[in-house]
Amino acid sequence: MTLPTDLDHDAGALRAAMVKGLADATADAGADALSPVRPAWLTAAEEVPRHAFVPGFYLAADHLDAQGLTVWEPVTSNLDYGRWLAASYSDTTLIRQFDGEETDWEQPVVRHGGAPTSSSTLPSLVLRMWSDADVSEGHTVLEIGTGTGYSTALACERLGSSHVTSVEVDAARLAGAADALYGCGYTPTLARADGLYGYWPEAWFDRIVATCSFQSVPPALPRQTRPGGKILLPLSGWLYGSARVLLTVDEGPLLPGTISFMPARTHAAPAYGNPADWAAGLHEDRPRSARHTPKRITAATEEAFHLRFLAQRAVPDAQMVTFDGVLHLIDVVSGSVATLTPDGGNWSVREGGPLELWSRVEQFIDAVDAAGRPRPETYTLRVDGDGQRLLHAQVPDCPWAAERQVWRPPTPRTGTTAPPRPSPPAGNPGGGNRRSRGCRG
Fold it and tell me: pTM of the predicted model, to two decimals?
């Protein structure tokens, strides 16, 4: 265990090195960068002490346990000061919570497996999100998902605390973030609230940025955005396909990149029980050969990453799990199930229930293939009186998850109009631009 010497000095040196590394990576990417981090956000990162927001976290060990589960090792300044501080200023996601359960950081224990439910996202991605949202001085912002508060602090450093509102559904997460933010001199508006509904008391916002993913665009968010304002939202589904969308109020493109975020708790997938129970009734059904193999959406490639996001629009309520070497698609809403079993060089498909799940996925893959497998940034998400639809010139319109529909070939649109949105108040409710510096130990 490395003992502390001068925390402020040690942290300052590591923070400067981290920011330089991020700046160098942006410069090296040059014109090839999908979305470079803007210099103003790097300047903010030079001032915000990340270690103050992560007093304890978990890192994955370099081995699995006897059951094949990930071994998560707790890291705090008391356990290993050097490892804790170095990790705090590494471009790494730091897990703070599993399965919604709080850790006693005075006496943390090694964990085996578990689902992360709160983390401090790797700094490069946090800065990239703020950069992608096209935030400028004078903007008022709503952040959905305060988490540790580090991202919130960056926004306060850049815009001034009076311009920043952040909501968090987890009371313990919010309390910890508030202590760290106030201790560092940042005083944004913080509220325990479900980001699904935005935060009306502080509307209107120039920018809304979510640090968790949703199945669809929450209807409250466009209504709380100023005309011409932007919403940066991670999207995901129960197949864990992910994308990000940048809406200008109610329409915008998907963004490039293979980035995923933890789902908002209100949009998390439900438990489905025992896969064997679901498959039990399929044994008498006659199998068929798969036209598309599961690798089209499960392979560790950028193309499969994007296709999985798109394909889950065909089966928005389905989840995917492999059990005893058999891939299962399970839909707890309709009661449908499909299994794909390796069969020599092919896969055998069995389907049951009201929806033929894998057939629907295959039909959608056919449509994407026929269009030349377009990249995600060529799709546009539109939110209007007709609902939420993913649009592409060569691919049939995709009803979004909020409509609880499955993909079908396009039908003529009737052209209904969106309900009018009330006008925002005049002026800037965010007040003056005020910067906060310094951090209590």
Answer: 0.84
Q: CA–CA distance from 432 to each of 166, 204, 224, 228, 428 (Å)?
A: 18, 16, 21, 21, 9
At 138 the three-state DSSP class reads coil
> In the sheet where 318-323 sits, what is the strand order?
288-289, 346-352, 336-343, 326-331, 318-323
Assess contact for 366 and 359: CB atoms under 8 A: no
- List domains and CATH numbers for the chain: 7-211 (3.40.50.150), 270-412 (no CATH)
Cα gap 428→205, rounded to integer Å:
9
Q: How far apart are CA 144 and CA 192, in angstroms?
A: 10
pLDDT tens for each residue of the chain, 441 residues long: 455 568 999 999 999 999 999 999 888 765 445 568 899 999 999 999 999 999 999 999 999 999 889 999 999 999 999 999 999 999 999 999 998 888 999 999 999 999 888 889 999 999 999 999 999 999 999 999 999 999 999 999 999 999 999 999 999 999 999 999 999 999 999 999 999 999 999 999 999 999 989 988 999 999 999 999 999 999 988 988 899 999 998 899 988 887 878 888 778 888 999 999 999 878 666 789 999 999 999 998 989 999 999 888 889 999 999 988 999 999 999 999 999 999 888 999 999 999 999 999 999 999 999 999 999 889 999 988 778 888 888 887 655 544 443 334 444 333 333 333 334 434 333 333 333 334 543
Range list of β-strands (E), 135-249: 141-144, 164-168, 189-192, 205-210, 225-236, 242-248
Query: What is the C-alpha to C-alpha distance for residues 197 and 63, in angstroms, rounded to an integer?
Result: 41
* CA–CA gap between residue 144 and residue 213 (Å, rounded): 10
CA 173 to chain centre: 17
Q: Give residues with Cβ within 8 angstroms of 63, minimum separation 6.
A: 71
Backbone angles phi, psi at 301, to 5 degrees: -130, 160
Q: What angle do CA 292, 295, 300 make, to 5 degrees?
A: 150
Query: 279: left (phi > 0), else alpha (psi -120 to 50), else beta?
Result: alpha
CA dihedral 112, 115, 119, 123 (to 10 degrees): 90
Residue 62 carries which side chain, given as an amino acid letter?
D
